[in-house]
TrEMBL record:
It holds the Pfam family DUF4123. Residues 84-140 form the DUF4123 domain. It comes from Alcanivorax xiamenensis. InterPro entries: DUF4123 (IPR025391). This is DUF4123 domain-containing protein. It comes from the Bacteria. The lineage of its organism: Bacteria, Pseudomonadati, Pseudomonadota, Gammaproteobacteria, Oceanospirillales.
Length: 295
């Protein structure tokens, strides 16, 4: 996995829509009135045509009036304050609308594990795309981006994150149909819903924590660690990861914490129940002792 790919952050008032050519919307999350005048085009490939109204759609800015395009940032913000993500992505490209459409359709059939495929097919979902730059390597990301030079997605708080395609794309021209994933990548892709659940929980309890590529890799590693110890319930996994972030990664090396894991995997109680009697003071002490054990 490559977590070194550059992701740029901008606020909505810094956006220059005249530097972008189109947008992707998720019609099942956006009311019809919010799309007035945007002329969205279905992206569903022919084999999925029966699901066209539930799959992403493409808005091409050349097809809408300049006046509407100029007021689009205000419309995005208006609907954001109502809890609606109007545009799932903004894109820039020199390719034609037909070329972009064909590429995005190909992404629906990129090979992965069963669960991983479900995740990748939701490439248009900001909660999926934000993870791809740290899960995939540069060549794989070039295959995802295809002819698209810039892909921007909303972070939910009024900001946008950008991923720029590698300049070597013109040389290699990788395609979505050539995408292949390692077994580790497939497992991580299948874990994205749980990674997002942990991210949301930690965002609420630790709002100052920078959720960057290193953060997400740590969450993924801790989830893998929990699974290896036999902790499989999502609620239990979330607690295991939260404890490591709140008190330090060495907390789980303390004998009493190891005993909680054993109790949860060898009896009918959950890991959450096994830890229910542990106060924050005890957990902080365990983290210190766990670190000493490592040293």
């Amino acid at each position: 996995m490559n977590g070194n790919q550059v992701v740029i952050r901008r606020q909505m008032d810094e956006m220059r829509l005249d530097e972008l050519v189109g947008a992707v919307i998720n019609p099942i999350q956006v009311p019809a009135e919010a799309l007035k005048g945007l002329k969205p085009m279905p992206l569903a490939p022919r084999s999925l045509s029966l699901q066209a109204q539930r799959l992403p759609q493409l808005v091409w800015f050349d097809d809408i009036p300049d006046l509407l395009r100029g007021t689009l940032p205000k419309r995005i913000e208006y609907w954001r304050h109502k809890g609606v993500t109007l545009l799932s992505a903004l894109v820039d490209t020199t390719a034609s609308v037909d070329a972009v459409t064909r590429h995005l359709q190909d992404l629906f059939f990129a090979p992965a594990s069963e669960d991983g495929t479900v995740a990748l097919r939701r490439f248009y979902d900001p909660r999926v795309f934000l993870h791809l730059p740290w899960i995939l390597d540069r060549r794989q990301m070039m295959s995802v981006m295809g002819p698209i030079n810039v892909w921007a997605w909303p972070d939910g708080g009024g900001g946008w994150q950008y991923h720029k395609n590698d300049e070597r794309f013109a040389l290699f021209k990788p395609t979505a149909t050539r995408l292949n994933f390692s077994q580790k990548q497939k497992v991580t892709l299948s874990r994205l819903p749980l990674i997002n659940q942990v991210s949301e929980a930690l965002s609420a309890s630790m709002p100052d924590f920078d959720q960057n590529a290193a953060f997400f890799r740590s969450v993924d590693q801790l989830l893998a660690e929990a699974k290896e110890k036999g902790i499989v319930d999502d609620r239990d996994c979330r607690l295991y990861v939260t404890q490591a972030f709140q008190f330090g990664p060495d907390i789980h090396k303390h004998p009493d914490m190891e005993a909680c894991c054993i109790k949860a995997t060898s009896s009918t109680i959950s890991y959450v129940e096994a830890c229910s009697d542990l106060s924050d003071e005890m957990l902080a002490h365990y983290a210190v002792e766990g670190k000493r054990k490592v040293l």
